[in-house]
Amino acid sequence: MEYIESGAGQLETRNQTGLFALELQNSDRLSVSGGPKYEFLEAPFRIAGVTIPSGGYAFSDVTVSYSMGQQRRVSGTLSLQQGGFYDGTITAVSFTGTRVSILKQWSVEPSLSVNDVRLPAGDFTTTVVRARSDYGFSPRMFVSALVQYGSSDNTFSSNLRFRWEYLPGSELFVVYTDERDTLRSGFPDLRNRAVVVKINRLFRI
Predict the structure, then answer these.
(1) Helix, strand or coil, per DSSP, at residue 41
(2) Does the pLDDT of residue 88 top 90, yes or no?
């Protein structure tokens, strides 16, 4: 149970959640969770181009999830959420925590989340697609990449990271990030870009 009040004693959030889980002998896991919720909006809340008026909202939802064990070559959690969302409804489907072992030193972690929201002020659907990949050259050197697309702000972002522990406790990091606007025609328009290099050295006395 979660209960949050403002400094003035106004109830802001109240969540009561129950969980039932069943773990199978193959390490897969089935769970069902849900319960009533309450949210107070002191000011109008805008999300995905739709404005939810201020006020108190009581609603409830339920989520059914099935998680595949980490010993599988392909693992992850498939979830379905159905219920209320402020003064409307939400249906959400997601496949997260996914891990695909391609090689012993190389894995890919794709994920997908789709939220379909119906409100009196308007309906919207948001989609987030993400993929992460790691490749280990050795126990002390690896490179990772993360790419993501979000329909709510129409952006495509990428993050590339290289880590090398050149001495025990001493590391070199090189990180590249960028964000692009997918509404522009042709190759997505660049919004921002950054390159960060960090090096630390451990001295033993």
Answers:
(1) strand
(2) yes
